[in-house]
Design a protein that fits this description.
Layout lengths: L3 E5 L8 E4 L10 E6 L2 E11 L14 E2 L8 H13 L4 H8 L6 E9 L1 H12 L10 H13 L6 E2 H8 L3 H9 L3 E9 L4 E8 L1 H4 L6 H8 L5 H12 L3 E3 H10 L5 H8 L3 E8 L4 H10 L7 H16 L3 E7 L5 H14 L3 E5 L7 H11 L3 E4 L5 H12 L5 E4 L11 E7 L16 H12 L2 E6 L4 H8 L4 E5 L10 E6 H8 L7 H12 L3 E6 L7 E4 L16 E3 L16 E3 L6 E2 L13 E4 L3 H11 L5 E4 L7 H13 L4 E4 L12 E7 L12 H13 L10 E6 L5 H7 L3 H15 L6 E9 L2 H18 L4 E14 L2 E10 L2 H17 L7 E5 L6
Parallel strand pairs: 12-17, 12-18, 13-15, 13-16, 14-15, 16-17, 19-29, 20-27, 20-28, 26-27, 28-29
Antiparallel strand pairs: 1-2, 1-4, 3-4, 3-5, 6-7, 6-8, 9-10, 9-11, 21-25, 22-23, 23-24, 30-32, 30-33, 31-32
């Protein structure tokens, strides 16, 4: 037995910590509970050994080994180490994100008596409790009861202290604030399975099943009333057991009170027991029947599948880029490839950018593979996520669908990884560790030696460049299913519109005319207006003051009240000003907070204002809105899509959510309003994002039998982004954009890192940023260029001040060396590690 183990803990420190095992045994990759900094943390064992630490170093003991065997296989442990090195992230925080098992460790607080509390206890007893206090005598007695209960020095849980003394948690916290008690965290292992109560009919009551239920119950139990007999009959009809939740719903329909079940339990005729309930995907499966279409693969799909299947048969690592235009049937190829993988005894992983925004794709997978499917995404509860994780690890689910964190699913015999909409920025995590799900998927495939396919109609320039250089195999699908034509894209020059009408209009005359005609023909229309709320700037006309968030250097967005509801009819918050970064809200003032002028001016139009104007323009239309204010859950999205598919909604307005993966066959017209606003953002990827958005939303038109049309309102109709989007020319756009990237040495023709220095005090942030900037300018490796430090574009978020530096290099190893050296300086200068955020391969510089 080894005496020591090295444990990676979820703390912002780039090292593992050595603990003594004592009589315990632990394997590499297993979880252990250890003391750290006055609390108990769960970490991952990285090594077991007999090498004692240096003399004078205190070694604490492992308190508990949570797993008999390693939870993370060797390839995931290697992947975690690679992420930590590549993204300059603490290994413990990386490994914590790889195992979504927080539900299995319950955090609660314990209290023990402190020295001051012990003094109060003894002195108070000696003086007959004569002390000054604002508490009532009853509360004073309860405090002394707590101190007496904890006199032994052993910590007590809140529930135990409450049972013994009657003191609640608020009183215990108040005593801890007075330093009478010491408050300590306690983490315990719990069963993360979802447990529900089940009603079970006792066997002796069921009797001979050949008799009628009511007849046998009447003979045996003549004293039961009609309601109780109804409960017995319902249970017998369910085979003698049923979820209490479901039983109550059915009984309520017949007017049977809940007390009838309780009476039967008291008489011993029915018993209640806990039962672990599996997570079901029935709602998605039923939803999938609406979307799943039996397709015979066309020639392009068959060729794409053949390339992927051949790669799987060779069992070697070779990444593929599936470039398929919108509507070309990429999902059908995914399903066919996954079927090949399962037939070969392998498992398959499909990553999607946001499962709440792509229910059609997820539903088709569930419809195709049924109980073989497991889901991993943020809309699951912690218990559900843990349950799915264990199902996957045991091999019970060979098909996994999920968002970026699903790339860490512990899948045995993983043979195929698919990344849908690989260009989507949602794959990039915005908290430490700041990994990119697409790139991690490629690395995992490399470690396993399996096939990985990245699919998109608008590939990221990084993936496109890798295909151009021969690092990826490029597969092209350039025709839509059933030879449907791509929609015709036309530009509306809003400068000309203003000259002709003499006023600013949110919707151009041509868009209104085409929408009227489409609705008149019984067709559906989608209008993209990529800003939430009603107006995104509120300004005083007198002094020019902008109303900004108290926590962020961001203008507050105006939300008009009265009409903002979710699809299930739930009323949303009324008229307000809101920050879309931190969630801060305030009432709309009647006058300017700075000069008290009543002339407040509302600038810009969001999706809420767009919906209001459309209701005025088209009073007979059935209008819906899709944005973060109306779609909060996957259920909201499913209800909205059901209304679109049924034709209950024929005019939809919304943000970029409407552009992601929706297959609505009745849509023939798409309008785009104000998308080129983003071309002016201080981000080298701005043009790429706008082109992707225009192409993706254009792809929602003409997916049925009727051809589609797209009208793009723009103040820059001659911009190359708009010109290439009009022609559906991705290759032309990529070549043009790469020309500019090459000139400015931006990715993918260089490597980039954004270093953010942040803190609650501006003076500290400025000092740290100056110190690191000066060191980098003097000691940076050759080939590294440093821009900054300077205020970040979003210079204050959630009361945190932010400065940043951008590091460029031609080679990855040179950039990594510079970042590691800088982090050594951070440690040497005692700059808090959480104050320095390293974002390698950033998707934006905001």
């Amino acid at each position: 037995m080894s005496q020591y183990c090295d444990v990676a803990l979820p703390v912002p420190l780039d090292r593992a910590f050595t603990y003594e095992l004592g009589e315990l045994e632990a394997e590499v990759g297993a979880r252990v509970m250890v003391p750290f900094g006055g609390q108990r943390l769960v970490g991952i064992v990285m090594a077991v050994h007999d090498a004692a630490p240096d003399e004078g170093v205190e070694v604490k003991r492992v308190e508990r080994v949570l797993d008999e065997a390693a939870l993370l296989p060797d390839e995931l442990m290697e992947l975690g180490k690679w992420i930590a090195a590549y993204y300059c992230a603490p290994l413990g925080e990386v490994l914590r994100g790889m195992m979504p098992l927080t539900a299995e460790v319950k955090r609660q607080w314990t209290y023990r008596i402190g020295e001051q509390g012990r003094r109060v206890l003894y002195e108070g007893a000696a003086k007959g409790s004569s002390r000054r206090s604002k508490l009532t005598p009853e509360e004073q007695n309860r405090e002394y009861a707590v101190l007496n209960y904890l006199e032994s020095g052993e910590p007590g849980k809140v529930s135990a202290i409450r049972s013994a003394t009657g003191a609640n948690k608020a009183m215990l916290d108040a005593m801890a604030k007075k330093k009478w008690l010491v408050r300590e965290p306690l983490q315990e292992v719990r069963d993360a399975r979802r447990v529900e109560m089940v009603a079970v009919l006792e066997e002796q009551v069921v009797g001979n099943r050949e008799q009628g239920v009511e007849e046998q119950q009447t003979k045996r139990l003549p004293k039961l009333n009609e309601n109780q007999l109804a409960v017995m009959a319902e249970l017998a009809g369910c085979g003698g057991r049923e979820l209490v939740r479901e039983l109550r719903i059915r009984l309520a329909v017949h007017g049977v009170p809940e007390s009838s079940l309780g009476t039967l339990v008291k008489r011993g005729l029915v018993r209640l027991e806990e039962s672990a309930q599996a997570f079901h995907v029935t709602s998605l499966s039923q939803h999938g029947k609406k979307f799943a279409h039996e397709h015979t693969l066309n020639e392009a799909q068959i060729e794409a599948l053949a390339v992927i299947a051949a790669a799987m048969e060779k069992s070697g690592f070779r990444p593929h880029l599936l470039y398929g235009i919108t509507g070309s049937g990429k999902t059908a190829v995914y399903i066919a490839a996954m079927q090949r993988a399962l037939a070969a005894g392998k498992s398959a992983l499909l990553l999607v950018p946001e499962i709440g925004l792509t229910p059609g794709t997820a539903a088709q997978m569930v419809a195709a593979f049924g109980s073989e499917v497991a889901l991993l995404h943020s809309q699951l509860t912690p218990d559900e996520r843990a349950e799915q994780w264990h199902r996957i690890r045991k091999g019970e689910a060979r098909v996994v669908i999920g968002t970026r964190s699903a790339v860490f699913a512990p899948m045995p015999e993983l043979g195929l990884i698919l990344v849908d909409e690989e260009h989507d920025s949602s794959y990039k995590q915005e908290e430490t560790p700041r990994y990119h799900g697409r790139d991690v998927a490629v690395m995992r495939a490399k470690l396993l030696g399996c096939t990985v396919v990245l699919g998109s109609a608008t590939p990221s320039l990084e993936s496109w460049s890798n295909a151009e250089r021969g690092r990826y195999v490029r597969i092209e699908m350039t025709e839509r299913v059933a030879s449907r034509p791509l929609p015709k894209v036309e530009m509306i020059d809003m400068r000309e519109e203003f000259r002709e009408t003499g006023k600013e209009q949110l919707f151009a005359r041509r868009l209104i005319e085409e929408t009227t005609a489409a609705l008149g023909r019984g067709e559906q229309v989608i209008i993209l207006l990529n800003r939430r709320g009603y107006s995104f700037v509120v300004m005083c006309r007198s002094c020019g003051e902008k109303l900004e968030c108290e926590n962020c250097a961001i203008s507050l967005t105006y939300h008009k009240g009265g009409e903002e509801q979710s699809l299930n009819g739930e009323a949303r918050v009324g008229q307000r000003l809101e920050c879309h970064y931190c969630g801060f809200r305030r009432n709309v003032p009647k006058d300017c907070p700075k000069c008290q002028s009543e002339h407040l001016y509302y600038l810009g139009a969001g999706s809420q204002q767009g919906e209001e104007i459309l209701q005025e323009l088209f009073p007979g239309a059935r209008i819906g809105r899709m944005d973060r204010d109306t779609v909060r859950t996957r259920g909201d999205m499913e209800r909205l899509l059901a209304k679109l598919h049924s034709g209950e909604i024929n005019l939809l307005v919304g943000t970029q959510m409407i552009a992601k993966g929706h297959d609505i066959h009745g849509v023939t017209l798409v309008g785009v309003v104000g998308a080129d606003f983003a071309l002016g953002l201080p981000d080298f990827r701005a043009s790429e994002r706008v082109f992707q958005l225009l192409t993706q939303v254009s792809g929602r038109a003409g997916r049925g039998e009727l051809p589609g049309k797209v009208l793009v309102q723009s103040y820059q109709p001659d911009h190359y982004v708009n010109q290439f989007a009009r022609e559906h020319d991705y290759t032309g756009f990529a070549a043009k954009e790469m020309y500019f990237r090459r000139a400015m040495k931006y990715p993918p023709l260089s490597v980039l890192a954004n270093v953010i220095i942040q803190g609650e005090r501006l003076e500290e942030v400025l000092g740290w940023a100056t110190k690191l900037g000066r060191w980098l300018s003097q000691h940076k490796p050759e080939g590294v260029r440093v821009l900054g430090p300077a205020p970040a574009p979003n210079s204050k978020l959630k009361r945190i001040y932010r400065y940043h530096m951008v590091l460029k290099a031609d080679r990855r190893d040179v950039l990594s060396a510079a970042l590691r050296a800088m982090l050594n300086v951070v440690e040497a200068e005692q700059i808090p590690r959480r104050a320095v955020v390293v974002d390698v391969d950033p998707v934006h510089l905001m």
